[in-house]
């Protein structure tokens, strides 16, 4: 039997990090070989299993990402934009598949990730669930079928610890709607209106963010015209669906050529 690909989880103490550690430990196709945290994080230097309130795993949480990545075939990374840009370079050096779930990446961050993908497989998506990725396809199709008399608004709701807005998912849905319309999202995006904004501009795509409590992630795409509305909605109630998508991407990427991929590629929903 061939060896299972080894996985390092970055940001292991985070909401998604802990979820990912558990899912990799449960997997019969991947093996957890490392856990990385930020220098200064309480977990660094301690046994991962004990940090998570369980039994010893023999994996010591480290802040030496390159050393950990060198022992892995995949890095699963749901951290922060600054951390992810650094990890992209290190994962490429280690020739490990880099699965990026981090959102809030700037255009400059994306350029750096693009450079790293010359040497390694990078799978990046603002949402790793099947439902959301399918919804991007449906959104593109509906937007293509309707003209600009239909106003498009995207509403997202998340827990009160989320630090970026609009969410990565909302931006994926916005990109899909813009693509369906044949326009560039950057040209038509209206974010969080406030004050005397003037009337809504025809053809624009609006984004609105709600933050509260422990909402895992909810997204609505509204197509509104005179007398009627179409509402497409996705509700996530459990973070394991994001983690499972990330594991699927880590496995899928093992035999791919260096380059940038997304979950549509992994799920076989691409063009
Ligand atoms: N694509 C998808 O399907 C999904 C994406 N996300 C995205 O994933 C990201 C993380 O979300 P969430 O888990 O809720 O956030 P958390 O804040 O709970 O976790 C982030 C973790 O990353 C750690 N971290 C930050 N900088 C570094 C670094 N330089 N090296 C190592 N670790 C670092 C943090 O450590 P510390 O606390 O010490 O700073 C923390 O443990 C967000 O961008 C979120 O939007 C979330 C869910 C699904
Ligand atoms: O921060 C989160 O929690 C989530 N982030 C992703 C996003 O920005 O869309 C995915 C999911 O909605 C949860």
Describe the protein.
The active site is at 158 (proton donor/acceptor), 162 (proton donor). Pfam families: DapB_C, DapB_N. The chain has 271 residues and is an alpha/beta fold. It folds into two domains: 6-128 and 239-267, 3-Layer(aba) Sandwich (Rossmann fold), CATH 3.40.50; 130-236, Dihydrodipicolinate Reductase, domain 2. 35% of the residues lie in helices and 23% in strands. The protein has ten helices and eleven strands. It has a six-stranded parallel β-sheet, with helices on both faces. A five-stranded mixed β-sheet has the order 7-8-6-9-10. Helix 1 (15-26) crosses helix 9 and helix 6 (130-145) runs parallel beside helix 7 (168-181). The longest helix is centred in the middle third of the chain and has 16 residues, at 130-145. The radius of gyration is 20 Å and the shape is elongated. The model has no long low-confidence stretch (mean pLDDT 97). NADPH dihydro-nicotinamide-adenine-dinucleotide phosphate is lined by residues 10-11, 13-17, 36-38, 41, 78-80, 83, 101-104, 125-128, 168, 242.
What binds here, in terms of ligands, is: NADPH dihydro-nicotinamide-adenine-dinucleotide phosphate, the ligand O=C(O)C1=N[C@H](C(=O)O)C[C@H](O)C1
Main sheet attributes: strand count, strand direction, barrel closure? 6 strands, parallel
| Terminal residue distance | 34 Å
Number of E strands: 11
**Element-by-element helix/strand order:** EHEHHEHEHEHEHHEEEEHEH
Sum up the overall morphology in one term.
elongated
Task: Provide a count of the helices.
Answer: 10
Report the CATH topology name of the largest domain: Rossmann fold
- Please tell me the total number of domains: 2
Proportion in helices: 25-40%
Strand order, largest beta sheet: 2-1-3-4-5-11
Question: Ranges with pLDDT <50 over ≥5 residues?
Answer: none
Category by helix and strand content: alpha/beta
- Which strand-content bin applies to the residues? 15-25%
Q: What is the CATH superfamily classification of the largest domain? A: NAD(P)-binding Rossmann-like Domain
Average predicted confidence as pLDDT: 97
Radius of gyration: 20 Å
């Amino acid at each position: 039997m061939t060896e299972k690909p080894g996985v390092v989880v970055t940001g292991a103490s985070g909401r998604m990090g802990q979820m990912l550690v558990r899912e990799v430990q449960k997997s019969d196709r991947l093996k957890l070989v490392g856990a990385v945290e930020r220098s200064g994080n309480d977990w660094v230097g301690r046994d991962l299993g004990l940090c998570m309130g369980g039994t010893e795993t023999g994996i010591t949480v480290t802040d030496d990402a390159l050393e950990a990545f060198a022992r892995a075939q995949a890095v699963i990374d749901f951290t922060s934009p600054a951390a992810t840009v650094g990890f992209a370079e290190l994962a490429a050096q280690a020739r490990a598949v880099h699965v990026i779930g981090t959102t809030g990446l700037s255009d400059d961050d994306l350029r750096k990730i693009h450079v790293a993908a010359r040497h390694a497989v990078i799978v990046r998506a603002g949402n790793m669930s099947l439902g959301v990725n399918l919804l991007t396809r449906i959104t593109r199709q509906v937007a293509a079928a309707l003209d600009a008399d239909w106003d498009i608004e995207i509403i997202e709701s998340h827990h009160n610890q989320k630090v970026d807005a609009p969410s990565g998912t909302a931006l994926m849905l916005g990109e899909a709607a813009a693509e369906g319309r044949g326009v560039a999202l950057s040209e038509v995006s209206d974010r969080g209106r406030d004050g005397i904004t003037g009337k809504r501009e025809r053809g624009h795509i609006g984004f609105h963010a709600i933050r509260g409590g422990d909402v895992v992630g909810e997204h609505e795409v509204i197509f509104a015209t005179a007398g009627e509305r179409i509402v497409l909605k996705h509700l996530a109630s459990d973070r394991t669906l994001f983690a499972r998508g990330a594991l699927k991407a880590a496995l899928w990427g093992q035999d791919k050529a260096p380059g940038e991929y997304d979950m549509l590629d992994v799920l076989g929903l691409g063009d």
